[in-house]
Amino acid sequence: MASAEVALKHTHVEKKKKVSERYWQGSGEEKKDEAPGGSHVPGDQPAPLGSQTNQQTRASEKKKKYKAAERHGKKAITRKPDPFPGSAPVPEEKRLKFRRKMKIDQLPQHLTKLRRVVASSQAESEITEKESARHDQLLLQEDAGFLEGDEDEDTCTISQEDIADAVDITAGAKYFNLNLSQFGPYRLDYSKTGRQLLLGGRRGHVACLDWQTKQLLCEINVMETVNDVKWLHSEAMYAVAQKKWLYIYDSSGIELHCIRKFNDVLRMQFLPYHFLLATASATGFLQYLDVSVGKEVAAVGTKAGRLDVMCQNPQNAIIHLGHSNGTVTLWSPNQKEAIVKMLCHHGGVRSVAVDKTGTYMVTSGMDKKLKVFDLRSFKPFQSYFLPAGASSLALSHRGLLSAATGDIVQVYRDVWNTPVKKPYMAHKVHGAVWGLHFCPYEDVLGVGHGEGFTSMLVPGAGEPNFDGLDSNPYRSAKQRQEWEVKALLEKIQPELISLDPGKLSQVDYATFKQKHQDKVKVLGYDPLARDKFKPRMRKKGRSSTGGVIRRKNQVAHEDKREIIITTLKEKAESAKERKKNNNGQTSAVQRSALDRFKKRAAP
Amino acid sequence: MKVKVLSRNPDDYVRETKYDIQRVPRNYDPTLNPFEVPREYTRAMNATKLERVLAKPFLASLDGHRDAVNCMAKHSTSLSTLLSGACDGEVKVWNLTKHNCVRTIQAHEGFVRGMVVRFCGTSFYSIGDDKTIKQWNMEAPGYGVEEEPINTILGKTVFTGLDHHQKNGTFATCGQTVDIWDEQRSTPIRSFSWGVESFSSVRFNPVETELLASCASDRSIVLYDMRESMPLKKVIMTMRSNTLSWNPMEAFYFTCANEDYNLYTYDMRYLEKPVTVHMDHVSAVLDVDYSPTGREFVSASFDKSIRIFPKENRNSREVYHTKRMQHVVCVKWSADNKYVMSGSDEMNIRLWKANAAEKLGVLSHREKLAANYNQKLKEKFQYHPKVKRIARHRHLPKHIFTEAKEHTVMREARRRKESNVRKHSKPGAVPMLSEREKHVVAVVK
């Protein structure tokens, strides 16, 4: 019974009298300490978030308000204050991602107007930085994929079938093989949104399909060797580099153009913001085709032989070419010479890839090495030795590197930061790998090989959150049309391709000399140069040779006059100074008569 | 083994029904949106080009006067009403929205020299060459009733300028003297003169309402305080000023339209040199009026064009002209900051947009956003040479173009001569004078 009574004492009836404690009110002890005082001032509660000083100032402000209200004879309405006042704080490291440039704080005092403009624009950019960081923190829907092994289990030993079994059915369906042994090996390309897949078999088979629904859009045989295939800006058109010429087809397989100016193309890259199709040919030419107007923008003879290694830097639209002598060269359509030449390998370069941020370049060569370069300083970061050497490379949005060695596809993680010991994933396909491509915004790696095509699951490869205005995999036809118009309107001119695309917004500190040189170039003469004095023609024999010379001589000293005046002034000043010094000296040491024969010290 | 592979639910990314708006998930990661500067530059370029394409400032021409338009007055309370006086003594009241004349009065014999609407908007004053000041009712008389002024004052001399006090029933006229009148009396309560001169224009300060400024024919601008018996001070310039206008927001600034083709913005407190010299016209400037925001003003010139100047800039941002427009005598900036009205010698009043490329009418929210964004872009890239070239380009009539060229040559020659004189004189004998210092002769207090 006693136990029952004890139990009765702890019934909910009694408990309910006590105000339920909220998690922001701190520990129970503090509460007890406060309770006897009885005077509970709102705003004095311990702050769970935010800096202490900030909180204190807030509290004092509130107190002031209350006091002011009392003074006016009103009774302050007590209500629970907001436990988390203001907007949620954004950590500094999150904001760093959206920081555009360094602050300007050293502006001369007299430029008041400019200082005001700069200050206001900086304040604005700070707000946007904060807001985008907050958006990043709260509103992104998806998380990235991952793969973790159990204890003593290497992730690279996990087979594709196991992964496909373990994940949900829609994701599992993204692992599949296409057995196309007849026209292989295959090159491939994913469209910018990642929805469509384009396959090009070496022996002429070209197919494009919506790979997620496995719906075939078109399938043709061009009855010719196919070197490379590439989607253009939308999924309505693609380019095929065939044996002789470059062809453009639409998504139903109708030949739209045969471009005879582009011959023997081996590799292609599409620059989506410039609407440029860059092609590298067997004759050593790098050509740019503007697909919006159908004109060749630039043709650069690289003088480096057959060009079959090519990639683009997605941050600045520079084309990287790998050569058989081990160099990698960087090109823009505006320059006939390579912007940068880097010796990367002993022996030829087999493949090049640049990451999404444009910071790292990964190359593989005939010397069986895989190297990571920093594109800011053009210096090597890491160097790996792969026993079989990598024939093709691909980098995913989140920085996963896939390297094909023979018929094995290996995926590495974090190749640039720390030396990697073993691959993250590995998969064996049938036949030698011919093309590798990570699908944008999906955890999928497409592998084209001798026996067809394999779509591999690589958890953590794809960017989980796409930007709907840039490339939206779920866009409707209407949205696509609107995007296309907008994209064409803001097509970047090829002249703006350079190593640093942000250069345009920086202050161009042209020196006076540069400005003057430019002016001379534009005008064709030097506006600051003094024209030579030309005596006017005079009549009645006053323009005789002697007279002309006399008149010229009258003016000739004009030019010298200024110089003479200044030098005289200087001389006088220096003489004065010398006199001063001499006076000091004479007082100290008497000049002897023989001093005049002394050798004078050099002035 | 723990594994997660990206697998999106399409329901999160597509709209539920076709009546919804499309979902557009955003990710502001800079690496997903590369080339932001070149793309912005391209957008700015497009915006600048579009602005030039859409720059159609001319709205309407109001015709009906039978002689040159000599003066105009804005209605103080109604945006759509404009009053104009012509050289044949006719006053017309216009409805600007309907572009028609609603009332015609034969007010004076000879020129109508000036008009002003009383601050309450119920009546207006006009002065003419017949030495009279007439007060008229703003309401038109009933059908069949003759137009009669409420009040007529016969003065001793010809009046040339008129302005009304902002708050009470006094007004100022100028002629041989500057007179302050009480509305109830038929003689001036005060008259100012400073030497023998005649005045061309008088204006009340819109903020310090007791202050006045007037332009005199002896090349001076005189400031008065209505409460005192003597003028405050005057600045004498190299040439005569025709009219002046006070900045309505920073009312210590005023701008005067000068005969030497320039406009001068003065700070009332420091008349020693003007704050800015505005030079672009190629003939005498006849009238000037500030925008209600006080950031810009419009000037009318004898060179058959009107120009809009930002208040702190040396050069104009806009020039308006048409083939048919002759010497522009008077100009007004509408009180809603959207329109400019100009009256010219060939009897027409023209209605212009103050911002040539602005879209009129009600804008949707998205239109407003786009306009603001484009404006900001244009601002950001305004100094890039290609953008600047497009933004600055204006077509000019041949006579203005050639004369402007001529003036640059003349200015250069004058500069060269001065430097030659300086070179051959005693150092310091010919001082370097800035453009602002050149045109002020003296300040008298």
Topology (SSEs and partners):
The complex is a heterodimer of chains A (603) and B (445).
Chain A: H1 2-9, H2 12-17, H3 28-34, H4 52-71, H5 92-96, H6 112-138, E1 146-148, H7 160-166, H8 169-172, E2 176-179, E3 186-190, E4 196-201, E5 205-210, E6 215-221, E7 226-231, E8 237-242, E9 245-250, E10 255-263, E11 265-271, E12 276-281, E13 285-290, E14 295-301, E15 309-312, E16 319-322, E17 327-331, E18 340-343, E19 349-354, E20 360-365, E21 369-374, E22 379-385, E23 392-395, E24 401-405, E25 408-412, E26 425-428, E27 433-438, E28 444-449, E29 452-457, H9 477-489, H10 512-523, H11 545-588
Antiparallel strand pairs in A: 2-29, 3-4, 4-5, 5-6, 7-8, 8-9, 9-10, 11-12, 12-13, 13-14, 15-16, 16-17, 17-18, 19-20, 20-21, 21-22, 23-24, 24-25, 25-26, 27-28, 28-29
Chain B: E1 2-4, H1 36-54, E2 58-63, E3 69-74, E4 81-86, E5 90-95, E6 100-106, E7 112-117, E8 123-128, E9 132-137, E10 151-154, E11 161-164, E12 170-174, E13 178-182, E14 188-192, E15 199-204, E16 211-216, E17 220-225, E18 231-237, E19 241-246, E20 253-258, E21 262-267, E22 276-279, E23 285-290, E24 296-301, E25 306-310, E26 318-320, E27 328-333, E28 339-344, E29 348-353, H2 365-380, H3 385-392, H4 398-423, H5 435-438, E30 440-444
Antiparallel strand pairs in B: 2-29, 3-4, 4-5, 5-6, 7-8, 8-9, 9-10, 11-12, 12-13, 13-14, 15-16, 16-17, 17-18, 18-30, 19-20, 20-21, 21-22, 23-24, 24-25, 25-26, 27-28, 28-29
Helix pairs in contact in B: 1-2, 1-3
Tell me about this structure.
The complex is a heterodimer of chains A (603) and B (445). The termini of chain A are far apart. In chain A, 25% of the residues lie in helices and 27% in strands. Chain A is of the alpha+beta class. In chain A, the strands form seven sheets. A four-stranded antiparallel beta sheet of chain A has the order 2-29-28-27. Chain A has a four-stranded antiparallel beta sheet with strand order 3-4-5-6, with no helix packed on it. Chain B has helices at residues 36-54, 365-380, 385-392, 398-423, 435-438; strands at 2-4, 58-63, 69-74, 81-86, 90-95, 100-106, 112-117, 123-128, 132-137, 151-154, 161-164, 170-174, 178-182, 188-192, 199-204, 211-216, 220-225, 231-237, 241-246, 253-258, 262-267, 276-279, 285-290, 296-301, 306-310, 318-320, 328-333, 339-344, 348-353, 440-444. The longest helix of chain B has 26 residues, at 398-423. The mean pLDDT of chain B is 94. The chains are: A alpha+beta (603), B alpha+beta (445). The interface between A and B is large, with 68 and 37 residues.
